[in-house]
Amino acid sequence: MVPLVFFINGFTKHDWKGAFFFALAVAVGLTPEMLPMIVSVCLSNGALAMSRKKVIVKRLNSIQNFGGTDVLCTDKTGTLTEDRVVLMRHCNVAGRETEDVLLQGYLISYFQTGLENLLDRAILDSADFHGKAMVEKHKKLDELPFDFTRRMMWVMVADPEGKAILLTKGAPEDVFHRCSQFELDGQLSPMEPDRMVGLKAEYDSLSNDGFRVLAVATKDLSGKQVCEKEDECELVLRGYVAFLDPPKDTAARAITALAKHGVAVKILTGDNHLISRKVCKDVGLVADPMMLGGDVEKMSDTELAEAAEKATLFARLSPADKERGIRVLRDQGHVVGFRGDGINDAPALRAADVGISVDTATDIAKESADLILLEKDLMMLEGGVIEGRKVFANIVKYIRMGASSNFGNMFSVLGASAFLRFLPMAPIQVLTSNLLYDFSQVPIPADAVDEEQVLRPRPWNLGEIKRFILFIGPISSIFDYTTFFVMLWIFNCRDPSHTSLFQTGWFVESLMTQTLIIHVIRTNKIPFLQSRASWALTATTAAIMAVGVWLPYSPLGSALGFTHLPRMYWPILMLTLFTYMGLTQIVKMWLLRSALRVDPPAIIT
User: Fold this and answer.
1) I need a labelling partner for 175 at 20 to 30 A (CA). Which of 4, 242, 339, 602 fits?
2) What does pLDDT average to over the chain?
3) Phi and psi of 587, rounded to 5°?
């Protein structure tokens, strides 16, 4: 624009100095210099609003991603459940209660020095073996902490007789593979395939009842003082400890609310698939088809992408499986949020478009997250999603307004420069108009947002914005040219001596149309009738329009190169404004209907 306007005005008006300053003023006027401020204030307002809903924003740019989220992946524990784990059973392989299994589990949780989890705390809170003077009779010799590959841990202790014993607890299916015998009523029996069926049936029965189950096994290591990883074999299965983490009362309502706003919830957990299925059923999530970690590892990315679209529950996942699942969903075009709070969730938190953790999470999870929840409640995410969509909607409003207005001004300035014998507007007038128009948009970050604009995710759609610019922008040029015609032929501004009158007339019309059209572009409804802007935006609109009317008659008018406008100008301006708003509203509604045919709203099941 700058070279074109400069050379056209230079060659047609033969005033190269005036052409240079006019081109420079046009460049300033067409530059969306308010965009950084609008974006920053929108994001900051969103962060403040979310903080009032107990969601702390660590990275501002994650807010619009949160609003665009259409798939929310989350762990089960603490999200669907109360995260209040209680030890409910400690039984042998036949399901009968026994103190021996509780003691062995207690010793493991007491002596281990790794990260204490909720299951360890539940075991330690369930009995007082210190009071029974049992712990003091044992001495810790060695330890191998839990890891997500082995899915088990052990400690090596010396019993009251000084004999070394390996005590192990972990995921039953992993412990089973390392056991050669099981103990029942004081008798040891081999882990033969037919007996494995019965052992697994008891474990499955506990899992189907919603219990989270850990297997407890031991091994005699008499004569040893340290233990090697290779000693994790030939174990004796002693029984199970079973925990219950009841579903949250709010989980079902939260899932329904998120689905209403176009967000599908998927569960990615490392827990047992039977327990996870039971919890999903209790909160109203359809758990079938279900994906297991072993199946995920065997699939190609293409196969996993197809499966991930259909499945809601992914169980027995490793940290790498969670991360891969997130990446595959993102590759499918989804905006993915992930909520996790454990060490094993860090890779998935980083891979997601927006990582969500809680203030009680591990340090690495909080460091990897973009948002921090002050409460473990899925309902809080619904409010955050809505705030994110409000932020996005207000940013898009400014882009629509600025881009379409500037696109129309481009045609008006070029046309006026080509056929007028004088500058269509003085440089100081261009800058004044730009300053006033920018001021009228300052309240956009706090503007009200229509309800339907937050009902479903709205990712960046450059095609939609481009169509909006191409069709809405030139409409302003139509009425600029009608104003040119009125000023030239009705008010006789063809004479260069009436240059000031022409410039004043276009200044007022341009400022009025740009300021008022904000209310048409900010909503998909009929402005003022079906959708009203915030009081601040309405107030600045009225104030700027009043200033536009006042300036030609003010003490500043002569300094800015303005002159008084004839009375006949004002009814013509009112007709121009009314027609401009009506035509823009018609084209806008046509564009919206066309967009729905091209890109119908997604249905979240």
Assistant:
1) 339
2) 86
3) -65, -40
pTM of the model: 0.74
Please name the amino acid found at residue 39.
V
The dihedral region occupied by 77, where left means phi > 0, alpha psi between -120 and 50, and beta the remainder, is beta
3-state secondary structure 379-443: HHHHHHHHHHHHHHHHHHHHHHHHHHHHHHHHHHHHHHHHHCCCCCCCHHHHHHHHHHHHHHCCC
Question: Taking the C-alpha atoms of 220, 226, 228 and 231 in order, what is their torsion angle to the nearest 10 degrees?
Answer: 0
**Total Cβ atoms within 10 A of residue 420:** 19
Burial class (CB in 10 A: 0-12, 13-18, 19+), 36: exposed
**Where does the pLDDT of residue 210 fall: very low under 50, low under 70, confident under 90, or very high at 90 and above?**
confident
DSSP notation for 529-544: TTB---HHHHHHHHHH
Q: How confident is the model at residue 421 (pLDDT cuts 50, 70, 90)?
A: confident
What are the backbone dihedrals phi and psi of residue 217, each rounded to the nearest 5 degrees, phi first?
-140, 160
Q: Which element (helix H / strand E) includes 86?
A: strand 86-91
Phi-psi region of 37 (alpha: psi -120 to 50; beta: other; left: phi over 0): alpha
Position 603 pLDDT exceeds 50: no
Name residue 338's amino acid.
F
Which amino acid type is present at position 5? V
| Tokens read off for 274 | 């039977």
> What's the half-sphere exposure (Cβ side, CA atoms, 13 Å) at 92?
14
pLDDT at 604 exceeding the cut of 60: no
| Bridge partners, residue 358, by sequence | 373
- Which of 526, 525, 515 has the alpha carbon at shortest distance from 577? 515
What is residue 546's three-state secondary structure?
helix
- Residue-by-residue DSSP string for 47-94: HHHHHHTTEEESSTTHHHHHHT--EEEE-STTTTB-S--EEEEEE-TT
Q: Give pLDDT tens digits for 485-500.
A: 999 999 988 888 889 9
| Torsion, CA 159, CA 162, CA 165, CA 167, rounded to 10 | 30
* Cα–Cα separations (whole angstroms), residue 566 to 391, 425, 548, 552: 43, 18, 15, 11
Start-to-end CA span in the chain (Å): 49
The residues assigned a catalytic role are 75
3-class DSSP state of 50: helix
The reported pLDDT for the residue numbered 486 is 92
Residues in the chain: 605
Helix, strand or coil, per DSSP, at residue 336: strand
DSSP category for residue 603:
P
- Residue 23 confidence (pLDDT): 78
CA distances from 68 to 47, 49, 56, 104, 400 (A): 15, 17, 18, 49, 18
* Mean pLDDT value across residues 7-17: 78
**77 or 484: whose pLDDT is higher?**
484
Residue 332 is classified by DSSP as: T
Residue 40 has a CB neighbour count (10 Å cut-off) of 12
Measured distance CA(228)–CA(223) in Å, rounded: 14
> How many other CB atoms sit within 10 Å of the CB of residue 298?
9
